[in-house]
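Tutorial handout. Part one gives the primary structure; part two gives the three-dimensional structure as C-alpha coordinates.
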Amino acid sequence: MVTQITRGIKISVSTNFEGTYFKNYRIQFAFSYEITIENQSKDSVQLNTRHWEIFDSLNDIETVDGEGVIGKKPVLKPGEKHTYSSGCLLASPFGAMRGYFSMINFTTTRTFKVIVPTFRLSAPFAIN
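Part two.
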Protein backbone atom coordinates (compact mmCIF):
# COMPACT_ATOMS: atom_id res chain seq x y z
CA MET A 1 0.00 0.00 0.00
CA VAL A 2 1.16 3.51 -0.78
CA THR A 3 -0.04 6.65 1.00
CA GLN A 4 0.37 10.39 0.68
CA ILE A 5 -1.11 13.42 2.43
CA THR A 6 -1.81 16.67 0.58
CA ARG A 7 -3.36 19.59 2.51
CA GLY A 8 -4.76 17.27 5.13
CA ILE A 9 -6.26 14.80 2.64
CA LYS A 10 -4.73 11.31 2.97
CA ILE A 11 -4.77 9.04 -0.07
CA SER A 12 -4.10 5.31 0.40
CA VAL A 13 -3.89 2.90 -2.53
CA SER A 14 -3.71 -0.89 -2.66
CA THR A 15 -3.58 -2.96 -5.86
CA ASN A 16 -4.31 -6.49 -7.01
CA PHE A 17 -3.64 -8.52 -10.15
CA GLU A 18 -6.96 -9.95 -11.40
CA GLY A 19 -5.84 -12.15 -14.30
CA THR A 20 -5.32 -12.18 -18.04
CA TYR A 21 -7.90 -11.77 -20.78
CA PHE A 22 -7.92 -11.88 -24.56
CA LYS A 23 -9.42 -8.88 -26.30
CA ASN A 24 -9.17 -8.27 -30.04
CA TYR A 25 -6.72 -11.20 -30.33
CA ARG A 26 -4.37 -9.60 -27.79
CA ILE A 27 -3.63 -10.56 -24.23
CA GLN A 28 -4.63 -8.00 -21.59
CA PHE A 29 -3.48 -7.95 -17.97
CA ALA A 30 -6.23 -6.85 -15.56
CA PHE A 31 -5.51 -4.96 -12.36
CA SER A 32 -7.80 -3.62 -9.66
CA TYR A 33 -7.03 -0.89 -7.19
CA GLU A 34 -8.72 0.39 -4.06
CA ILE A 35 -8.38 4.01 -3.04
CA THR A 36 -9.26 5.45 0.36
CA ILE A 37 -9.60 9.21 0.66
CA GLU A 38 -9.46 10.39 4.26
CA ASN A 39 -10.14 13.97 5.32
CA GLN A 40 -7.66 14.72 8.11
CA SER A 41 -8.18 18.48 7.73
CA LYS A 42 -10.52 20.72 9.74
CA ASP A 43 -12.61 21.70 6.69
CA SER A 44 -15.25 19.88 4.66
CA VAL A 45 -14.15 19.10 1.10
CA GLN A 46 -15.62 17.66 -2.08
CA LEU A 47 -13.91 15.68 -4.81
CA ASN A 48 -14.87 17.11 -8.22
CA THR A 49 -12.57 15.65 -10.88
CA ARG A 50 -9.81 13.10 -11.37
CA HIS A 51 -6.71 12.97 -13.54
CA TRP A 52 -4.78 9.75 -14.21
CA GLU A 53 -1.57 8.94 -16.01
CA ILE A 54 -1.41 5.21 -16.75
CA PHE A 55 2.00 3.78 -17.61
CA ASP A 56 2.29 0.44 -19.41
CA SER A 57 5.76 -1.03 -19.89
CA LEU A 58 4.91 -1.82 -23.55
CA ASN A 59 2.88 1.27 -24.48
CA ASP A 60 2.80 5.02 -24.23
CA ILE A 61 1.29 6.86 -21.30
CA GLU A 62 -2.50 7.00 -21.33
CA THR A 63 -4.11 10.06 -19.76
CA VAL A 64 -7.63 9.89 -18.35
CA ASP A 65 -9.62 12.87 -17.05
CA GLY A 66 -13.14 12.82 -15.75
CA GLU A 67 -15.68 13.97 -13.22
CA GLY A 68 -15.77 12.38 -9.79
CA VAL A 69 -14.79 8.80 -9.07
CA ILE A 70 -16.98 5.91 -10.25
CA GLY A 71 -19.83 8.33 -10.86
CA LYS A 72 -19.66 10.03 -7.45
CA LYS A 73 -18.42 13.36 -6.14
CA PRO A 74 -18.04 12.54 -2.46
CA VAL A 75 -18.24 15.21 0.23
CA LEU A 76 -15.99 14.50 3.19
CA LYS A 77 -16.41 16.20 6.54
CA PRO A 78 -13.40 16.28 8.86
CA GLY A 79 -12.53 12.73 9.93
CA GLU A 80 -14.58 11.04 7.20
CA LYS A 81 -13.32 8.53 4.62
CA HIS A 82 -14.46 7.47 1.17
CA THR A 83 -13.24 4.19 -0.33
CA TYR A 84 -13.81 2.99 -3.87
CA SER A 85 -12.49 0.30 -6.19
CA SER A 86 -11.71 0.48 -9.89
CA GLY A 87 -9.35 -1.12 -12.37
CA CYS A 88 -7.46 -0.98 -15.63
CA LEU A 89 -6.16 -3.21 -18.40
CA LEU A 90 -2.54 -3.18 -19.54
CA ALA A 91 -0.83 -4.79 -22.52
CA SER A 92 1.99 -5.99 -20.28
CA PRO A 93 2.25 -7.49 -16.78
CA PHE A 94 3.97 -4.33 -15.49
CA GLY A 95 2.80 -0.75 -15.19
CA ALA A 96 1.97 2.06 -12.83
CA MET A 97 -0.55 4.82 -12.27
CA ARG A 98 -0.40 8.26 -10.71
CA GLY A 99 -2.59 11.30 -10.73
CA TYR A 100 -4.55 13.76 -8.67
CA PHE A 101 -8.03 14.66 -7.53
CA SER A 102 -9.31 18.22 -7.88
CA MET A 103 -11.18 19.13 -4.71
CA ILE A 104 -12.96 22.14 -3.30
CA ASN A 105 -12.59 23.35 0.26
CA PHE A 106 -16.04 24.46 1.45
CA THR A 107 -14.60 26.87 4.05
CA THR A 108 -12.36 28.81 1.67
CA THR A 109 -14.31 27.97 -1.55
CA ARG A 110 -10.93 27.33 -3.21
CA THR A 111 -10.09 24.36 -5.37
CA PHE A 112 -6.89 22.41 -4.81
CA LYS A 113 -5.17 19.29 -6.10
CA VAL A 114 -4.68 16.20 -3.97
CA ILE A 115 -1.84 14.04 -5.22
CA VAL A 116 -2.40 10.32 -5.74
CA PRO A 117 1.04 8.79 -5.30
CA THR A 118 2.46 6.53 -7.99
CA PHE A 119 1.34 2.98 -7.44
CA ARG A 120 2.72 -0.06 -9.22
CA LEU A 121 0.72 -2.62 -11.14
CA SER A 122 2.54 -5.94 -11.46
CA ALA A 123 1.50 -9.51 -12.05
CA PRO A 124 3.04 -11.76 -9.38
CA PHE A 125 4.12 -14.43 -11.90
CA ALA A 126 6.25 -11.88 -13.76
CA ILE A 127 8.26 -10.72 -10.73
CA ASN A 128 11.69 -12.19 -10.02
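Part three, for discussion. The mean pLDDT is 95. The two ends are 20 Å apart (CA to CA).
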